[in-house]
Fold this sequence. Notes:
It contains 18 helices and 16 strands. It has helices at residues 20-38, 54-62, 67-84, 98-113, 167-176, 184-195, 224-229, 231-234, 242-248, 261-274, 306-313, 315-325, 336-366, 379-400, 404-425, 427-430, 437-458, 463-472; strands at residues 5-13, 43-50, 91-94, 117-127, 132-134, 152-161, 181-182, 201-202, 204-205, 213-214, 217-222, 253-257, 283-286, 289-291, 294-295, 332-334. The chain has a 6-stranded parallel beta sheet, with helices on both faces. The radius of gyration is 26 Å and the shape is elongated. Residues 10-13, 21-22, 24-25, 50, 228-229, 231, 256-257, 259-260, 288-289, 296 line the site of ligand ME8.
Amino acid sequence: MYKTYYVTTPIYYVNDLPHIGTAYTTVVADVLARYHRLKGEEVFFLTGTDEHGQHVARAAERNGVTPQEWADRMVVHFTEVWERLNISNDFFIRTTSPRHAEVARRFIQKLYDKGDIYLDTYEGWYCVPDESFWLPSQLADGKCPQCGREVELVQEENYFFRLSAYADRLLAHIESHPEFVQPDMRRNEVISFIKQGLTDQSISRKTITWGIPLPFDESQVMYVWFDALLNYISAIDYGVDEERFNAIWPADVHLIGKEILRFHAIIWPAMLMAAGLPLPRQVFAHGWLTVEGEKMSKSKGNAISPHVLIDEYGVDAYRYYFLREFSFGYDGNFSRENMTGRYNADLANALGNMVSRVLAMVERYRGGEVPESGKEEEAADRALRESAGRVLGEVDGAMEALAFNEALQAIWNYLGAVNRYVDETAAWDLAKDPDMAGRLDTVLYNQVEAVRLTAILVLPFMPRTGEGIWKRLGFTDSIHLHHLPAAGAWGLFPPGQKVSKGEPLFPRMEKGK
Ligand code: ME8
């Protein structure tokens, strides 16, 4: 029995609306979750919202409502946009839920009882937007070294977590498990950060009230990051339902942006070690998206809402674009021109036209009924079949490495091979010659079979498109019932089944739109 494949996104702060940056990680996680489901695995895909912290409390204050009211109002923007993006998360965790608070309090009590938490005076700087503590020596020109914004002086009695006590074990783990922190450049960053020496981490706030009260000192609330990281285990019932927890934990991959790497690759594993829990298999920190060459920010007002792009391009084109255009792990730039170019070339042409051409020919030459293939295989048929066999392996390798753009490249190479097959076998010529009826049957069958595989291959990336092709192919069951590798075998299309061309999948977009 496989362990449940567990993939997470960061839980997003509710101080601001979701934008294409937050949606990026969520779409990637969804594609990964769907790919593993396609392989027949049990999957648990978690996303949610981070609702405590000063940043959120201040946003609420500015808007004249309580933080809870603010969170309740903002969370809807996240759930709505995820629904529109066809995000298939199995659960949505909110850190203000009673279950989360209960698990977080039990967890911190455990560490306190063990002696890993102690009271001391904190004196240093705090970046509210990033919710992070900084030592004077870490500041960059007196500003937050992470985001460049103003920091505030904090001087209070706080509880500290003995992070330093775990430095050696953590370093040993990271060094002996190269896959634990990825990509490699991020792994190197973490290693050198730990080697510089870890200091104990303040994990509570005394002068703040918006947060989870500490069970051993109700006058303080938990530091928002300590609280937030625990979402990954509170969502799967840590300490509440051990059987469920053990079936899902450890996470297979925490997907995050590079700016929150230290929290996930240093503090979080140390917290888990302190609690005696296994570490996640991987923390993967991806790069940042810029918009038309600029960093997205509130002050610049250039943050793009996913809704705007979904309205223009459709959900599946949205999902496709971000996974195809950006090399996962690296920074990338969004531009409309680029997105429209990809839409027309990759989706309208290579994919959409190919599917309509193939199905239109079956309609025209065989009344929509897919013929049985002849026994004889010509060179072109073999090349197509082999290319179908290859693409499955290539996609699997790329997906295991989280190289989404390479997986899509492999699929589009395959689509290129299918298009070439259609051109070279020229069914329209065969149709003119009654003696070639048998050959035409074979050619049409192979083309349809190639389309069936296409539906399965694109499914994790573009679920509606995969479902739509499946329906056009005349299947009445759900495509989601078919799993790889079995469903990838060549020749499974049932002859005699009726297909229909249907509406274009991706109507061409006008230039300049
Ligand atoms: O950091 N490009 O929440 P957050 C790519 N609550 N990804 C981006 C992005 C961009 N321009 N902007 C945001 C927090 N992201 C904490 C997390 S987890 C226990 C707590 C994505 O709302 C990326 O995944 O600031 C980044 O790490 C995350 O949104 C930050 O979301």
